Amino acid sequence: MSRVRRIGATRIDLNELIKRGALAVLSILAVLLPILKVSFTSESDDIVLGDFQLLGGAAYLLPVAFLCGLATVVTDGMRAHARFIDVAGLIIALVAVSRSAYALGASLMQDAAPVDEPSQRLDQLAQVSLSYGSIPLLLVLFGAIWQLRKSWRN
Hints:
Number of helices: 5
Shape: elongated
Structural class: alpha+beta
Low-confidence stretches: 118-123
Largest sheet: 3 strands, antiparallel
Number of strands: 5
Mean pLDDT: 79
Helix content: 55-70%
Order of helices and strands: EEHEEHHHEH
């Protein structure tokens, strides 16, 4: 069921506008909220997607891609490029999730390594875990897969 409205000569699909708007908001939240939490014995620190340990400045491509996807609903000239924009958003989301998983897995593998030197003991005291910002990132990933599947059918 598609609810299409006309604003002048432009047709706007409200369902598509809501879906792509939700993906754009989730992608902004995924960049702003902390993804990983690093805890030492006396302090803790949050790592956001834009930190150098994860994606750095490339993290800001995630909201740009999904905001461009939102613009495909409103702008007639961009509708022809909707699939390409969906693929770009999915690739950036996959890179963000895989880099976060790699950082988390690398820290878990270091915890399992045997301790030989005192300098390694300080590194092993740090524990890395997922933070609440990983939820929007995973929702963006699944939403991007679902959106690409839908746009590929049309």
